[in-house]
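Data deposition worksheet. Section B asks for the primary sequence of the deposited chain exactly as it was used as input, without tags or linkers unless they were present during the calculation. Section C holds the resulting structure in token form. Section D is free text for depositor observations; keep each observation to a single sentence. Incomplete worksheets are returned to the depositor.
Section A, Depositor: J.P.
Section B:
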Amino acid sequence: MDKHLSLLAAATLAVILTASVHAADRPENAARRVGGSSTTVTGHATVQAVDLATRHVTLTNDEGKTYTIVADKRIKNLDQLRVGDVIDVEYREAVVVDLLPAGTPPSVKADASADSAKPGAKPGAAASQRITIVATIEAIDAATQHVKLRGPEGKSFEVKARNPANLKKVKVGDVVRITYTEAVAISVRKPGSR
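Section C:
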């Protein structure tokens, strides 16, 4: 879990530091949303060849680049894939940051879900994961633009702020809840359909 803790903190502390609300401005018994961001990336590729014996699938992306991938054995219904089919991929990532009341205990929670194609359907899958961590700001080093956080089990880690001017908007002792969610959906459609 330490790896997830460090990656999550590194990816999200910049959002914390863009907050325009000081901890002193919030009610003592309520969480206060101080930041958030989301990104969605989509891509499309057209199937050029499918070798069921080796599970190799040759694709051409929107820029005309052709490449071959090996379809994992967990991908169901590969035999339904046809030359000319279009593979759509959507990746979403979101971060939400809340300031919590002083004294809120540190914690970490992870949830994940996955779904795949039904028998006989075109291949497809969807998966998501959410990691929520509660941590306390231990130190802010404006010179190096680093913030030290203390999370579950008293473990500390450092992250670098994306916008150093926002270091003045948080203070040592603030308790933050960072919720990081990512999801990917892969679907296959016939050429010309939407």
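Section D:
The beta strands are 32-51, 56-61, 66-70, 86-100, 107-116, 125-141, 146-150, 156-160, 175-189.
Confidence is low (pLDDT under 50) at residues 1-28.
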